[in-house]
Amino acid sequence: MGIEKSYVAGEQAGLLLEKPFQIGEALRQGYTLDVEAEVQLVDRIKSKLRIKSSIHNKLEKTTMKKLGLKRAMHFGWPNTYVLTKAMGEMLLRQLGGDLPVVIVRPSIITSTFQDPMPGWIEETRWIYSSVLYTTALLLH
């Protein structure tokens, strides 16, 4: 039982079964998430932004953040982080074929947002050693 199913379940409460997302599944009832269509939407908007603006970097970044949040909320996720995690799970199931795939949903986020750089990890913490150990067991 959990409140957030390690983030991918959004803000649902109550008993949440640990089941992988099916391709097209959205948290919002009656909606279907087409991952390929979402990628194409982003590509189209980025292309338009690059044509319209010579200083596209800042405009593109702001527009993409807003679009990501809007699309995440449209399908029932509270932000782009959890939406893209769910999309990744869907793609693994769809494209993985007969590969034995294990989806690990750690409920701890430990790297930095920005300083000194995005994703920076200052030291080794217990979570990394447990992930490495689990990965080593799965690969053997």
From TrEMBL:
Q: Which InterPro entries match?
A: FAR (IPR026055), FAR_NAD-bd (IPR013120), NAD(P)-bd_dom_sf (IPR036291)
A GO BP term, please?
A: long-chain fatty-acyl-CoA metabolic process
Q: For the Thioester reductase (TE) domain, which residue ranges apply?
A: 6-134
Give the catalysed reaction(s), semicolon-separated.
a long-chain fatty acyl-CoA + 2 NADPH + 2 H(+) = a long-chain primary fatty alcohol + 2 NADP(+) + CoA
Question: What Gene3D superfamilies does the annotation carry?
Answer: NAD(P)-binding Rossmann-like Domain
Q: Superkingdom of the source?
A: Eukaryota
Any keyword Ribonucleoprotein? no
Question: What UniProt keywords apply to this chain's record, in alphabetical order?
Answer: Lipid biosynthesis, Lipid metabolism, NADP, Oxidoreductase
Record has Cell membrane as a keyword: no
E.C. number: 1.2.1.84
One family from Pfam that matches here is: NAD_binding_4
Q: Which SUPFAM superfamilies match?
A: NAD(P)-binding Rossmann-fold domains
- Give the top-level enzyme category: oxidoreductase
Q: What are the GO MF terms of this UniProt record? A: alcohol-forming long-chain fatty acyl-CoA reductase activity; alcohol-forming very long-chain fatty acyl-CoA reductase activity
- What is the similarity comment for this entry? Belongs to the fatty acyl-CoA reductase family.
**So what does this one do?**
Catalyzes the reduction of fatty acyl-CoA to fatty alcohols.
Q: Know the name of this protein?
A: Fatty acyl-CoA reductase
Q: Could you tell me which species this protein originates from?
A: Oryza sativa subsp. indica (Rice)
Traced from the root, the source organism's taxonomic lineage reads:
Eukaryota, Viridiplantae, Streptophyta, Embryophyta, Tracheophyta
